[in-house]
Structures are given as structure tokens and as C-alpha cells.
UniProtKB/TrEMBL annotation:
Domain Epoxide hydrolase N-terminal: 53-163
Lineage: superkingdom: Eukaryota
Active-site residues, Swiss-Prot/TrEMBL: 229 (nucleophile), 375 (proton donor), 431 (proton acceptor)
SUPFAM superfamilies: alpha/beta-Hydrolases
InterPro entries associated with the record: AB_hydrolase_fold, Epox_hydrolase-like, Epoxide_hydro_N, Epoxide_hydrolase
Keywords for the protein's UniProt record, in alphabetical order: Aromatic hydrocarbons catabolism, Endoplasmic reticulum, Hydrolase, Membrane
UniProt-listed GO biological process terms: epoxide metabolic process
Gene Ontology, cellular component aspect: endoplasmic reticulum membrane
Protein name: Epoxide hydrolase
Compartments (UniProt record): Endoplasmic reticulum membrane; Microsome membrane
Membrane topology recorded in Swiss-Prot or TrEMBL: Single-pass membrane protein
Purpose: Catalyzes juvenile hormone hydrolysis.
Main location: endoplasmic reticulum
Amino acid sequence: MEISPVFKVTAGLLMATVMTIFYINKPSTGVVPELPNTWWGPGTENLQTDKTVRQFEILFTKAQVNDLKSRLKNTRDLAPPLKGTGWSYGTNGTFLKKNIVDYWLNKYDFKKRLAYLNKYDQFKTNIQGLDIHFIHVKPKNTQGKNVLPLLILHGWPGSVREFYELIPMLTSPQADHDFVFEVIAPSLPGFGFSSSAVRPGLGAKEMAVVMMNLMRRLSFDKFYTQGGDWGAKICGQMATLFPEHLLGIHLNYCYLAEWKSVFKIFLYSFFPSLLLPKEDHHLLYPMKKHFFKTLLETGYLHIQATKPDTVGIGLSDSPAALAGYVLEKFSYGTNPSYQSKDDGGIYEKFTPDTLIDNLMIYWISNSITTSMRLYAESLNSFSRLSELSWPIKVPTACAQFPHELFYYPPKLLQDKYLNLIQVTRMPRGGHFPALEEPKLLSDDIWKFTAATFNSSKLSETKKDEF
Ligand SMILES: *[C@@H]1O[C@H](CO)[C@@H](O)[C@H](O)[C@H]1NC(C)=O
């Protein structure tokens, strides 16, 4: 009997599919290296290295404010956007000048806002040659409570300002929990008031080492971490590199960057119902639509991963340029549909003061260029990309906000987050939940901690100082 060619092709394809599925389901065997305590600052390490923890306050000097105001006043007329395009070609220049620039110049109360930004205790300490700035808030009334250190990490183009509303929700004891948080919120190296590296190579995994050393300096041996955006990536790298020190990681941006996941999403596109309930298919499929959406929104990522210093020139010299560049991300990150609004919907979830506080942190510290280098240091080679996808064995929580940039189904997240304790589908919110929905985020952090905290783990703590 002749075997029909159709049968042969079908059988071949079937075998190839089975083998592929077998291959991509193999657990990752990536070897996690020991990373060195690289000296990122000027000069070289010496025994005199200052290990003190110094109090710090943000300062807007008169000269800085006058200079900023004169630049804002001299903002040129910006090209009006094309009719009916909203913010889809980028920030609406007419709106930016009439609204944001005007507010910053005439209504933003520099003195009051500075006092607000200094409302929490802040410190600096030198780690691997870098002065690292951090907010440190200890809870009050801790009788009968375990005090758990929680390191929270911001991303780009955010700053520690993202956490001002969230912090008191974490440091105020709750009757039904026997623990409360002590919050450590650093500025990432190169961001805000933390100094930046003088030599190349300080990417996400190297920042994980810096953050671990910061926690050691503060004598925290075991702690929780929380983060979104780059903060989530760095929390993940810390979990991979230092699993014995992390009690759990709570992420509001659980991402999958490995080829295997992309390929699985592709395979499931033939049978999406095996992966997702029908009402969620649109979150991943059709792939073509999501691919082009990603392409349209990630131009900034490509330029920052390749030529951050070039973009940085305009952004660090013009406050209007900085505002236009950063606020476009706050618009789209909050809700992609805001792109069609005249004002980018930026006041839907944020006040002008909040948005400008964050801009002030970049402006006063002149750190936009060095902040963008994180993309280059983490993404500009294939070997760096693959390091981002090490598996994570530490207990993990993923808070999924509906307007987050990407959606990943729990079934796929389990490939990377091997000890996934909870996945919460949030009712509202986007890429900046600490600012947009601090209560939802805080509740989820408490819930995760209650599910994972075991006071015996904390008592194993050895306090060895770095
Ligand atoms: C840009 O903003 C101006 C001022 O707010 C507004 O009048 C105009 O309609 C906006 N243009 C677009 C394309 O959204």
C-alpha cells in the first residue's frame, strides 16, 4: 500500500512538534555565575573605603531653580501635533508647553514639594565605589510584630517618588498580621541621587550585586523585595544570585524574555484555549497585532540600548524635552488607550505635582543620561539577554495589572518562576501601580508575605556586616 504524501508530511510535522514540545519543556540548566564586587566608582578600591551610612536630604538650590525656570520660560514653540492623532506620534507639544511647562514654571511650589520629597529619612552609603541613595522607613508601634525588611526597587523612567504613597501602607502595622515592613527604597545606580558608574558593564544583574551589598551594609541578612519594570528584573536577578537571602519577591511586572517562552506562545497560538480562557485570548493573540504594537512602542528601548548618551544630550539640557520624553511613558504605561487623548490622559491617575516631582529628581540630579544606560548595559548583547532569563526558585508573587505593557499567562510564568505562590489579576491599574493604585499593590504585598513568612526563617538570620 502506498503511503500518501499528505500522511507523510502530517506525520513528520507531528513528530517535529512532539520533539519541540519535549525540548522546550526541558528545565533550564543555565549555570549562575558568582559575580564579582566590581568597583564602579572612580579610582580603585582601597582599605580606606568609607563604609559609613550618612543622612541625606534632597536640595533644590536657588541657582538650580533659577536656571530651571529660565529654561522653562524660554521653551520654544513646539510643532503642533497632526490633527486627530493624540499622542500617537509622541507627546503633544502644544499641550506640553501650555500645560506641563506652564505648571512647572508658575504653579509648582518648589519649596513645598522639596519638603514633601524630604518627608522620609534618607541616607547615602558607598557601595562598590558608588554613593547609593536610599529612603529608609522603620515602622512604629511594632510590639508583638516581626519587622520584615522590604527592599523596593523602581524602574525607568521612575524614581523613589513612585513609593511615597505606598510606604506608609507597608510600615503601618495591621491587626490581623504578626509582621510589619521596614522599607528600604534606593535610587538605582545612575538614577536620581545615587551616583553612576564610570566604566561600562553595570547592567541589571550587576545592580543586583550592588543592592545585595547595600542590604548587607545595613545588616539585613534575609529580606523581601518588591519591584516593577527594571526593579522587577533586578529583584529577579537578586533571587537567582542570592536565593538564601531572599524570603520572597513580589513583582508587579513578571516578564518572560526567553526564546522558549516566545516559542511556546507561538505554539499555543494554534490551540490558544489550552493556554488561556477564551475571554483572555486577545491578551496574546493574534500575535501579529501584539508584535506590531510592541514594535511601535519600543523605539525608545532600542535607542537607549544603543546610543543613550546621544538622546541624553537634549533631555538633560531642556526640561521641556525631559518632560515630553518621560511623560509619554507615563501616558502609555497607565493605559495604552490614553494615546488617543489630547492630553495623553496623564491627569487621569496622576497630579501635575506628582509627575513633576519625578521629573525634578531626574532634573536636579542630571541623571537622565546615566539612567538610560541601564538599557545598554543590560540589553546590548545576546549573552546579556540570556542572563535576564535565569530561572527563579525563591517564592514569587506576580501582581498583574490590566494595562501592563505585556501579559503572560500563569502557566508560562511557572517556567521561569519555579516557586510561584500567587498570581493576582488586578481590577485596574497599569505600569506604575505604586503611584496609580497603591492600596491594591500594598494589599497584595501583605497577602503574599502572610502566605510565605515563617518567623523561624528570620531567626536563622546572621548579621554579618559588609
Ligand atoms: C494637543 O493639545 C492641545 C492643547 O491641549 C489641544 O488643543 C489639541 O487638540 C491637542 N492635539 C491633539 C492632536 O491631540
